[in-house]
Amino acid sequence: xxxxxxxxxxxxxxxxxxxxxxxxxxxxxxxxxxxxxxxxxxxxxxxxxxxxxxxxxxxxxxxxxxxxxxxxxxxxxxxxxxxxxxxxxxxxxxxxxxxxxxxxxxxxxxxxxxxxxxxxxxxxxxxxxxxxxxxxxxxxxxxxxxxxxxxxxxxxxxxxxxxxxxxxxxxxxxxxxxxxxxxxxxxxxxxxxxxxxxxxxxxxxxxxxxxxxxxxxxxxxxxxxxxxxxxxxxxxxxxxxxxxxxxxxxxxxxxxxxxxxxxxxxxxxxxxxxxxxxxxxxxxxxxxxxxxxxxxxxxxxxxxxxxxxxxxxxxxxxxxxxxxxxxxxxxxxxxxxxxxxxxxxxxxxxxxxxxxxxxxxxxxxxxxxxxxxxxxxxxxxxxxxxxxxxxxxxxxxxx
Length: 399
Prior knowledge:
Layout: H1 2-20, H2 24-29, H3 33-52, E1 57-61, H4 64-81, E2 88-92, H5 98-106, E3 113-119, E4 124-128, H6 134-148, H7 171-192, H8 194-205, H9 208-215, H10 218-251, H11 266-294, H12 298-320, H13 329-336, H14 341-351, H15 356-383
Parallel strand pairs: 1-2, 1-3
Antiparallel strand pairs: 3-4
């Protein structure tokens, strides 16, 4: 046992030092900045395009008194439905050549005019392409009828009792925290778990893997490589969490303290995030390590890892069913299934304050991690190093 642990530590220290002390690790730490920068860039472009693209309006060619009555009717509807649900109105004074004015307004682009309403309230006239927009015509008819009524209709008094909302985060805030934690954990695991596979392919092509296998037990080499990549990933995760907290402190008043706290509290939730990230990484990292052991080229890795990636997405969808329903049968099944258990329990930590389910879940996941590591090491020995008798695939379980 001591030889196994010593050998695993030696292999893990070698791979950890080769990864963390390399120049490329700095670029690896900067990897999340690239999607964040792209999202900010395209988000800014979209916001600018949306700001420059004005909502089509209806031009009202009428005297000031009639336009005010129509605009007052619109304001009443805005109070009930919101400004975005009601058509925009732009007033213009009548010109002698009414037909030429209508054509000029319909060709306007600042703002774009969808239709022109002219004439009096008793005999309104609408010109525009409204065949595919019956809602605008219906709103115009409603505004005209309301404007004809004159002043506002009298409203009946209503007895309103103010109730103070409870302090603390709402359920919707905790649901948002659960969803964000699940998504971040999923994408980080998906991005980081491929490192161990690429490193194994490189050592296989350079024939280094045979030299290491001749010096240390196969199980120790397998475990050492996986935990070395886990340690490097956890180090990167801690750096990213610290950088994110510092960024929030700079750009948001109150910093991280202004975020809605999860049900278990921020210190416990961050600790659970690191633990569940480690469990999720070990489960999927072992799977990717086994895939890398079966492949000889990068093309074979891509072909074999594609079904695993789709399976990860299905597992993520299964874990997402636990959000806002942590005690439902589907959520309990997702928590019991080892591959979706870390993601599911992350969401539970954001919504439920109990700690004991996490202790049980971590022990359950650790047992499955040990089982998968054991199976992966045996498969690695049989298929890569070709040690032991060659058996058909249907008799591999007996071996």
